[in-house]
Amino acid sequence: MWKYLLFSLICNSVPLSMFNMYFEGQLGNLGSDLTEEELEMHTISAWKEGKVHISRQMDGNARSYPRRLVCAGPHDSLKDVALKILNGKVATVPITHSSSPDGSFPQLLHLATLSEILKCICRHFKHSSSSLPILQQPICSIPLGTRVPKIGESNRRPLAMLRPNASLGAALSLLVQAEVSSIPIVDENDALIDIYARSDITTLAKDKAYAQIRLDDVSIHQALQLEQDANSFNGQRCQMCLQSDTLHKVMERLANPGTRRLVIVEAGSKRVEGIISLSDVFRFLLAV
């Protein structure tokens, strides 16, 4: 079952929230009888069929609702494209154009991402950020991202964090249960050491690493050693910011290629105080 879960996460064919059903054993043994050879030969269409099966199980009445392709046209605004990415819960939206009246046979023009859209916004306000005062506000004064609850704030959602000696299985379970895309790895003082993201799971598919390890016997530290900085940016995996940083500065950092999130840390101690993702910024800017 673990192998099926790993491959489904790697292929991103099933939303994380659906995997709670697996951990609770409510979907039977779908995929658990696949051998390693069958997993290696499995196709994208087979995984999509598995997703349809999951949808039917969750719907409860054997109906399925095929998901339509989320796309945009060349005349759509950046706001419209950003909303399609957020509402569709996708990472990329294809920009297509068709010369046919009925819209058939569309041509792919571009692939739009939140990072690219944010880069356009930052470029627009590069020399005129003072024209929009909110950009000069420190992020500590803005309800942005997920923060570590302060004393007395029992109603705030806790920030998921783990120690480096926690098992890889615990990390994958927390990614599912907390419905997040990354988990800060911290020491005993909650100081940032590294980060384990859902994208790091792809490392387990390299050289059949998933077949050579037991998830509950491998620590996060060991798993990150397998990563070998494959997803790093400029040699640094953890992109950080401070509570005193302005929204404009945070936006510029997130507009860099390969940067999907910033971990908010305390100056000096690097104690984790929160995390801000690309989608967090757009949900704030668009008030959604």
UniProtKB/TrEMBL annotation:
Signal peptide span: 1-18
Domain CBS intervals: 154-213
Keywords attached to this entry: CBS domain, Repeat, Signal
Transmembrane segments: none
SMART domains associated with the record: CBS
Domain of life: Eukaryota
UniProt record similarity statement: Belongs to the 5'-AMP-activated protein kinase gamma subunit family.
Name the UniProt record assigns to this protein: CBS domain-containing protein
Organism per entry: Gossypium davidsonii (Davidson's cotton)
